[in-house]
Amino acid sequence: CLFISTLFHLDNTGNMYGGSYSFLSYVMIPLPLFMILYIGWEHDIRKTVCYTFVTIGYAICGYGIYEYAAKHMERLDSFYTSPPHVGIMMDVFIPLTIAFICYYRDNIFHLAVMSVLLVLEAVTLVLTQTRGAMGALSIAIFITVLIFLFRNQIAMGKTRRRLLGMGAGLLVVLALLCSLRFGIHDPYRMQGADRPFIWKSSYHMWEDHKLAGVGLNGWKNAYDHKYQLEGSREFKKNLHAHNTWLIFLSTGGILAFLGYNAYLILMGMYFWKRIRIYALNPFSWCMLAVFLAFVLNGLLDETFSSTSFGRLYYLAFGITLLFERWDTLHSEEKRV
Can you tell me the distance from the alpha carbon of 300 to that of 192, in angstroms, rounded to the nearest whole number? Predict the structure, then answer.
């Protein structure tokens, strides 16, 4: 659908292969998935992946917290210039860390290292003050826990089910209360900053270009020259629609919008099938939580349409597939 939409904008080849928003850039987003599967499908690299993940997690969180405290920053941004960037990254890191904790629960050293990392990631997420990332992740974990309890209600006792359900519900409540506290004295931030203006502008773009949008890399140019609304304070910083659905709708028209929704439906069906086949593998549930967090966070920001976030998502996808594959192989060897 994205490719077809670009055929309506052949006068500007940038829609095909130019910049961060183009057909070629979307094609290249899943590359980390294929790269890690290419290396790890025939070689067991689970420990290498685990150690690398832990090192990167400690570096991002450790440096971010140190910088936040040393420089008395208002919001944590670690190695990046955008706190929401780190917040959305934690939507991937936290579920993966929980999966590693469950997977290596019998190894005291791994359990301790991962548990400390999980605490650091939670602190990092809170200090970024990214309400969308916090709300999306907490709701995603809550939904994942409810599905897990429903799928395993026979194997689990009633007390354990209640405790898990109450814990997940409490997590959602705490996250929402904490997120509401951020920017409470700033009405502009509480309304979502420039988002209401950007959403209206993006919708107007689609109204004028219903079938194929303004072009995959045409949003910024269209916004700057025609669709900017009065009242916007950060028009120079606005690079996209801050809503994944509206990004595809405004840049690729109804074609890209339908394609994106089809993608979400197919991926949702795939992850549902995975948790049925690998019901006891924590990485199957981890990826479901990451997928739900990205879908929910896409209401307030770009997720699947972002090159950096998309690659991180597919990297996590590849990691979960690796652990499922090697667990299955070892289980078959034990049966033999």
Answer: 9
